[in-house]
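Justification of computing resources. Each target in the renewal requires a structure prediction run like the one illustrated here; the chain below, 306 residues long, is used simply to show the kind of job we budget for.
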Amino acid sequence: MIRSIGLFCVLCLLSLLTSCHTTSPADQDLPPYNPNVEAFTTGKISRYSPVYLIFNQEIPADRLKADRLGKLVRLKPDVPGRWAFENNRTLVFKPEKGFQVEVGARYEITRTLQTNVSLFYINKDNIRQTLANKGDISNGVELDKKVVGQVGRMDSKGFDIDITWSPIYNLSMSAGYGYTDAKVRDLADNPYMPTTSSKGKQYAYIPKNTFYAFGAYTVSKGVLKGLGVNFSTSFQDKVYRNSDNTSSFDAYWLTDLGFSYTLKSNVRLGVNINNLFNKEYCNQALGNQLIPSMPRNFMLSASYTL
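Resulting structure tokens:
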């Protein structure tokens, strides 16, 4: 894919070059150092092509630290990928690349029963991944921030299947199951974990198994005409929070229940009970501090149809 980039590179080189932090008598006639250096392009550049930055002087070996590049150099608009030193004068941006294959089928078993099935495979290179969370111990030091780095390659494969059944008028029920095997295949060099520690590990924040079931019914005649009820339950498998699978959120089930009533004036009143069984679970965190998700709660609604 080719797209117009416009404002493309904003280079914040800070103290990367030696001349950025030392001044000799011979340098006194030079203009003062500006920590914000900008470069522009107005042509068309493929978002999948590498970008090379070549400096007019060599960078000292002790400053060739790949883990600092995310702070020193940025692209606008943002393009997924990673920065790396090719040598002591050349910096290269390697964009995220990948491909996806998916096939699916829909089958009508009977007039009231249908099913959908899909299979997929995804392969990506140079993708971002959580290497460590705030509070983790790295090289004997407790980290004060979350660390996101570049994974060399990951792939995921799996399938989804769902089935829908409508045995009578105004009654619909459905259920679905999904399986995803997403794993890290290669990890770029970084100071936070050995490059071999996460190979073959489950990719962070992607559950291996998911399931849902849903049902809804609306009374179409009689004294209760206009009354509706819906019920849903869902399952999410354990998800890991980092590349080496040492931290995770537990699996959990959630169930919701809802009622509605449509008046003759086309006004619809509703009440939903979310997290019906008041399940305690966590799916987000602040560093290593898990944040509890919403307990049982109620939501009232009213709507009018013209």
